[in-house]
Amino acid sequence: MNISEAAAASGCHYETIRYYERIGLLAKPGRRPNGYRHYSAREVNQLRFIVRSRELGFGLDEIRRLLALSDDSEQSCTEVEELARRQLDAVKLRIRELRRTARELERTISECAQQSCGSCSILGTLRAD
């Protein structure tokens, strides 16, 4: 597959694929005689793994570690579980923060008297220290 086909098959934008190659998250693919990249099914599967990991909120370093762990089928998955639990904790924390933010926005909006921008409670809240 060329890069646009690999992008379509994996759900990863072609510029992002190039970025992953530059940072070493994805091995540089082989090249055809014309110089174009050629992606194998293995590399596309690895891209799908990366895309799904990003969707779940894992950072690039964590994905790098997960990829390394996935290459060793004999290793215990204890470290994988630890990484997943830490990510779950981070997601739960982010949900709590988003709920708090939503409550603050609801409160601020409800106080809006819809007068001039000079007396707008929403803008006042944004200006507050």
What are the defining features of this structure?
single chain, 129 residues, mainly alpha, Multidrug-efflux Transporter Regulator, Chain: A, Domain 2, 2 domains, two-stranded antiparallel sheet, 64% helix
Q: What does this entry look like structurally?
A:
This protein has 129 residues and is mainly α. It folds into two domains: 1-75, Orthogonal Bundle (Multidrug-efflux Transporter Regulator, Chain: A, Domain 2), CATH 1.10.1660; 87-129. Helices cover 64% and strands 3% of the residues. It has helices at residues 3-10, 14-22, 41-55, 60-70, 78-110, 121-127; strands at 30-31, 37-38. A two-stranded antiparallel sheet has the order 1-2. Helix 1 (3-10) crosses helix 3. The longest helix has 33 residues, at 78-110. The protein is elongated and about 65 Å long. The N and C termini lie far apart (54 Å). The model has no long low-confidence stretch (mean pLDDT 92).
Topology:
Elements: H1 3-10, H2 14-22, E1 30-31, E2 37-38, H3 41-55, H4 60-70, H5 78-110, H6 121-127
Helix pairs in contact: 1-3
Spatial order of strands in the largest sheet: 1-2
N-to-C CA distance: 54 Å
**CATH architecture classification name of the largest domain:** Orthogonal Bundle
Q: Which sheet architecture does the biggest sheet show?
A: 2 strands, antiparallel
The CATH class of the largest domain: Mainly Alpha
Percentage of residues assigned to helices:
55-70%
Q: What form results from the Cα inertia axes?
A: elongated
Name the helix and strand elements from N-terminus to C-terminus, one letter apiece.
Answer: HHEEHHHH
Mean pLDDT reading:
92
The total count of helices amounts to 6
Q: Which topology of the largest domain does CATH recognise? A: Multidrug-efflux Transporter Regulator, Chain: A, Domain 2
* Unreliable spans: none
**How many separate domains make up the residues?**
2
Helix and strand content put the structural class at mainly alpha
Beta-strand share of residues? under 5%
Radius of gyration: 22 Å
Count of strand segments: 2
Q: What oligomeric state do these chains adopt?
A: single chain
